[in-house]
Amino acid sequence: MIKKILLSAAVMVATSATLQAQTNLRTQFNQALALFNEMVMNKEIGEALDMIQPGIILSDTEKQEYNSALSEAFPDPFVGSSTVQSETLKSGFRQEMLAYWTESGDYLYLYLVMHTQGTQQQVIHVEHTTTFSKFISRF
Fold first, then answer.
1. Which of 13, 42, 108, 128 is the most exposed place for a label (fewest CB within 10 A)?
2. Euclidean distance between CA atoms 119 and 122, whole angstroms
């Protein structure tokens, strides 16, 4: 009887720790995504890319070039953003399609592929387009 109680308690603790780790990872992801979206909305795409891809170091000049290219392509301010589609794949991989739009109806779509190993999540691929069908077909 005592063995069953101890085994049950151990399973509950292990399950609770796993759920807590998953919750913390999702919370961290949501916070990072909110900051990333804010940067893109402010047309600071260079800083946003630098933040989500720590393995790729962008110079200040490169960041400014990304920012200038985004401002040229979208002279009007972005007025909204959303996660269009999000899908959990196998073995810790996940894909996300994000959208940003202007009041005049211009859209920017970003496609992200992420991989989670243990408690660490990293963005391993980023693409952008103004064509909706290019990324939505991947889901």
1. 13
2. 10
Residue 9 burial by Cβ neighbours in a 10 Å radius (0-12, 13-18, 19+): exposed
Q: Is the pLDDT of residue 13 over 50?
A: no
Q: What is the pTM of this model?
A: 0.77
Judged against a pLDDT cut of 70, whether residue 46 lies above it is answered with yes
Query: How far, in Å, are 80, 95, 110, 124 from residue 113 at the CA level?
Result: 22, 4, 10, 6
What are the residue ranges spanned by the domains of the chain? 2-136
Q: Extract the tokens encoding 49.
A: 């890319």
Fold of the domain built from segment(s) 2-136: Nuclear Transport Factor 2; Chain: A, (3.10.450)
